[in-house]
Write a structure and sequence with these properties.
Elements (H helix, E strand, L loop, with lengths): L14 E3 L4 E9 L6 E8 L8 E10 L3 E9 L5 E9 L2 E6 L2 E3 L12
Antiparallel strand pairs: 1-2, 2-5, 3-4, 3-6, 4-5, 6-7, 7-8
Protein name: Alpha amylase N-terminal ig-like domain-containing protein
Pfam families: Alpha-amylase_N
InterPro entries: Glyco_hydro_13_lg-like_dom, Ig-like_fold, Ig_E-set
């Protein structure tokens, strides 16, 4: 996987509200990684360590170098936390504030989502 092609920036054009209860979240990968499955793991900020939802997100845009994944979420409580899980062949990766890792400790998630 081309880690240099991975990009997500909170509070930017990669994560923004479109109204009071809806958010758009985008994620970028290098074009050669278009076969990677991307999942958004998200939950309410204060119980994210124990309760999460999972949603597969799909390619919505592409250019010469990158593919862009996008999902629209409807949230009753907009105080939420999220990370991404990436599946390539039989390997799992996580993308959070720690960057790309092969595991993620949800018990410490309050510190680095």
């Amino acid at each position: 996987m081309n880690e240099a092609g991975i990009l997500h920036i909170p509070d930017s054009r990669y994560c923004f509200a479109i109204n009071e209860n809806e958010l758009v979240i985008r994620f970028r990968l290098a074009k050669e990684d278009r076969d990677v499955k991307v999942f958004l793991l998200y939950g309410m900020k204060y119980d994210y360590q124990t309760k999460r939802k999972e949603k597969e997100i799909f390619i919505c845009y592409e250019d010469k170098l990158f593919v862009y994944f996008e999902v629209k979420l409807h949230l009753d409580d907009t105080r939420f936390a999220y990370i991404f899980r990436l599946e390539k062949e039989n390997e799992l990766y996580y993308f959070s504030e720690d960057g790309v890792t092969q595991d993620y400790d949800f018990s410490n998630a309050f510190y680095n989502f």
